Amino acid sequence: MLEPVGVRRGSGPARGGTSVAFRVAAAQIKPRKAEVEHNLRRVGDVFAQATDMDPCPDVLVFPETVLSGYFLEGGVRDVAESRERVFEALQRQYEARGRPDSALDVVLGFYELRDGRYYNAALYATLVRGDAGGAVPCIRHVHHKFYPPTYGVFDEKRFVARGRALEAFDTRFGRAALLICEDVWHSITAAIVALKGAQVLYVISASPGRDFGGQVVGNLARWRLLLPGLAEEHSVFVVYSGLVGFEGGKGFTGTSRVIDPWGRVLAEGPDTEECLIAATVDLDEVAIARASSPLLADLEATLGDLVLELDAVARKPYRT
């Protein structure tokens, strides 16, 4: 059972007029390395726990590589699955342990085998149990990590291909985008998906603690600056789910959180413990924030000039 954090009881998500408000939860989990079946059952445990939440989450987010663990190196080929098989396994878990006659949107990280290549992937899918008012189980989007890190403790590019696209997509709860860990350490990725209409960024990570020289662990300090900054600059909700646990002596720093379009933290998990955090996302706040601070509109207005500048930089020969 995950420790609930920020789980409010007694009232459902507000809905009125044309607005969309929904409950989102982020599960902070310690997977067992390379034990996919065990980790799928843990995901099913969280489905069961979510049925007891009041209100129940509409969207449930799991961390990067939650089905296998992160530092697998050549073991990626042993655990990688197609998106269809992962979706079918999740649907079976939800049919067995989810809330009767309901639908749940999930975000989840896994290693994918696709078109002869391995990828670090994030999936957004709708799961259904029984009569869910017309909701249809489906895969809505899969994102391949755009920036697989290969420095310091990281060695991803030796074992996975990098993604080649940054997309926004429609869900039952507004237009969204998926980004994985280092993807958001480059602010241009969030800018692109926000320009493509994303109102909610789902960010999943397996971020090992590093840079221990200061008062706060270096990567934790960076995440605490990055995520509110992205939310405020592009006036989007950011839902972040971080892996916890240890692999090969490396400890992952969870600190899952939900952040509103003003950069305010609505819910936050601890650094190293498993937990389940929850908050309400009201998409009306996106429009209000963008009207109050039109940075995204300003970016859109200058996009043509920026493209010319970027094209000039891309064409410039490399100089030492």
Shape: globular
SS element count, helices: 8
Largest sheet: 7 strands, mixed
User: Uncertain segments of ≥5 residues (pLDDT<50)?
Assistant: 8-17
Output the helix-strand order: EEHEHHEEEEEHEHEEEEEEHHH
Please provide a written account of the structure.
It is a single chain. The protein has 320 residues and is of the alpha/beta class. Helices cover 28% and strands 28% of the residues. Strands 1-15-2-3-4-5-6 form a seven-stranded mixed sheet. Strands 7-8-9-10-13-14 form a six-stranded mixed sheet, covered by helices on one side. Strands 11-12 form a two-stranded antiparallel ribbon. β4 and β5 form a beta hairpin. α1 crosses α3.
Topology, pairings included?
Elements: E1 3-5, E2 21-28, H1 36-51, E3 59-61, H2 76-79, H3 83-97, E4 102-114, E5 117-129, E6 138-144, E7 168-171, E8 174-180, H4 187-195, E9 200-205, H5 218-234, E10 237-242, E11 245-247, E12 250-252, E13 257-259, E14 265-268, E15 275-282, H6 284-292, H7 295-301, H8 303-315
Parallel strand pairs: 1-15, 2-3, 3-4, 8-9, 9-10
Antiparallel strand pairs: 2-15, 4-5, 5-6, 7-8, 10-13, 11-12, 13-14
Helix pairs in contact: 1-3
